[in-house]
Design goal:
Strands 1, 2, 3, 4, 5, 6, 7, 8, 9 and 10 form a 10-stranded mixed sheet that branches. Helix content is about 20%, strand content about 30%. The chain has 2 domains: about 1-95, 2-Layer Sandwich (Alpha-Beta Plaits), CATH 3.30.70; about 105-245, 2-Layer Sandwich (Alpha-Beta Plaits), CATH 3.30.70. The protein is of the alpha+beta class and about 260 residues long. The protein contains 5 helices and 10 strands. It has helices at about 25-40, 70-80, 140-145, 195-210, 220-225; strands at about 1-10, 45, 55-65, 85-95, 105-115, 130, 150-155, 170-180, 185-190, 240-245.
């Protein structure tokens, strides 16, 4: 059996999230429908992170095992030829037999896009950014964001979920807020994320911009360990999973900017 690793991009607008669900159109379900007949395999996929309904991805990672001997690039082209325009298999490669897209993931990079302007965003951007109807106080939002860096208990930023958690402690190693005209980006990199955690962080930071909260209140929100202490959940369509990081099997060459990650 071969273990194949896929890197996938998709527009989540019309999908009920990643995970296959009976009677609903999902990204996983669509990929299984396409890959199973091509490989003559009952495809069982493992994914780095289950994105919610409406959330997009540029660097989602999944893997599955198959006895098919189809060359990876040929398989990729065959799959893309059968998928619609909103899912793209960017890469298929052979993985080591023990590789697991979720268990082996060491960090994820999410990007939340905002259009901060009284006028609505242009139509080609509207499906991928949340319209914030005024200019953004970037400096105040950045000040608040700094309180979330490092290892914390992020229970206040977790929407209630049926999925059991051993711990709600996570580490955020990057939370950048950048602006280019009305385009605002929140780039969040961490070793793991709770249910709707990024969207809840963004929603809370936007309340800092609106003056409902002060940057100095963020430590107290963390300490509360209560979802009611944090802000609203930002809409799903502004969020994109950009990249999943994995530890290399051997030391990378010296000088790599992201040394220690592949």
């Amino acid at each position: 059996m071969r273990n194949l690793r896929l890197t996938i991009a998709y527009d989540g607008s019309r999908y009920h999230g990643w995970q296959r669900q009976h009677g609903l159109v999902t990204v996983e379900g669509r990929l299984r429908e396409v890959l199973s007949p091509i490989t003559q395999t009952k495809v069982e996929m493992f994914v780095a992170g289950r994105t919610d309904a409406g959330v997009h991805a540029w660097g989602q990672v999944a893997n599955f095992c198959t006895a098919s001997q189809i060359e990876p690039e040929r398989l990729r082209r065959a799959a893309n030829g059968r998928l619609g325009p909103d899912i793209l298999v960017r890469r298929i490669e052979e993985a080591r037999p023990t590789f697991h897209a979720s268990i082996d993931a060491r960090a994820k990079h999410y990007r939340y896009r905002l259009w901060a302007h009284p006028d609505k965003p242009p139509y080609w951007l509207a499906p991928y950014c949340f319209h914030w109807y005024r200019s953004l106080d970037v400096e105040a939002v950045r000040e608040a964001a700094q309180h979330l860096l490092g290892e914390h208990d992020f229970k206040s930023f977790e929407t209630a979920s049926k999925q059991p958690r051993l711990t709600t402690v996570r580490t955020i190693c990057r939370l950048d807020v950048s602006r280019d005209g009305p385009r605002v980006r929140f780039d969040v990199v961490g070793n793991g994320f709770l249910y709707k955690m990024v969207r809840n962080i963004v929603g809370t930071l936007l309340e800092v911009d609106g003056g409902r909260r002060r940057p100095q209140e963020l430590p107290g929100i963390l300490e509360a360990r209560d979802r009611a202490a944090a802000g609203a959940t930002a809409p799903a369509h502004g969020l994109t999973l950009m990249r999943v990081f994995y530890a290399p099997r051997r030391p990378p060459p010296a000088g790599l900017q992201e040394q220690g990650w592949t």
